[in-house]
Amino acid sequence: NTSPGPYLRFKMSSTEAQAILDAFYKPEFILMRERFYGKDYMSPGGEAAGKELLLRLSLRPGEKVLDIGCGTGGPATFMARHYGAQVHGLELSDNMIQLGQQRLNASEETLVKQRVKLEAADATTVQLEKAAYDVIYSRDTVCHIKDKKKLFENCMPALRSGGRVFISDFCRGDKEPPQEFTEYWKEKGFNISTFDEYALPLKAIGLKNIVKTDITNEIVNNNAIYI
């Protein structure tokens, strides 16, 4: 199972979208998913896969990170704990944020609590301080957002000059997928693009040096990490 994404297929306010998402992501369902992926993680591979991905980012101590689709805060706390980053996590599901914040408040890691901020907000409309972040990070989230152009136009002004964008996500190849697969994407609320389609709104807002790394073979050959 994955995010239902019904809020992506219809025009509605962020409040309405949040209510629909939380009706699906009830606390008991979040905990059930964590039994598959590990505490504080909602994506395949959990912390092990996140650790592998973050090695590619080369975070530096003190860097400020905007985490789009932070879930219950697993990657955010990992970046704060192991890299010394300051992380602002955005997540549309209020239920996820509440659970993540409860765990953060109960943590005895004072520095982690000081470095992590979790916020229930729509990343396509939330007001962000301009040039405030060194890194914009997102893991397995943007494929659920239909209007990627709106997302990037809203978030990219918050990136400092010379900053980095690091997104892991599901993309499709250049060949047309089977109809049953396309229907499955639509049913689940996915908005999966080719890499070139994905890159268009990033190029349109002036992002340079866009690099694609296809890790399909790594996932297939090392499924102990990625599933």
UniProtKB/TrEMBL annotation:
Which reaction is catalysed here?
N-methylethanolamine phosphate + S-adenosyl-L-methionine = N,N-dimethylethanolamine phosphate + S-adenosyl-L-homocysteine + H(+); N,N-dimethylethanolamine phosphate + S-adenosyl-L-methionine = phosphocholine + S-adenosyl-L-homocysteine + H(+)
Entry EC number(s): 2.1.1.103
Q: Which domain of life is it from?
A: Eukaryota
- InterPro entries linked to this entry: Methyltransf_11, SAM-dependent_MTases_sf
Query: Which keywords has UniProt assigned to this entry?
Result: Methyltransferase, Transferase
Keyword rRNA processing on entry: no
Q: Name one GO molecular function term.
A: phosphoethanolamine N-methyltransferase activity
Can the keyword Methyltransferase be found in this entry's annotation? yes
> Which top EC class is named for this enzyme in its record?
transferase
Which residue ranges does the record assign to the Methyltransferase type domain?
66-167
Look up the record and give one Gene Ontology term from the biological process aspect: methylation
Pathway given in the UniProt record: Phospholipid metabolism; phosphatidylcholine biosynthesis; Lipid metabolism
PANTHER family to which the protein is assigned, alphabetical: PHOSPHOETHANOLAMINE METHYLTRANSFERASE, PHOSPHOETHANOLAMINE METHYLTRANSFERASE ISOFORM X1
Q: What protein name applies here?
A: phosphoethanolamine N-methyltransferase
Q: What is the lineage of its organism?
A: Eukaryota, Metazoa, Ecdysozoa, Arthropoda, Crustacea
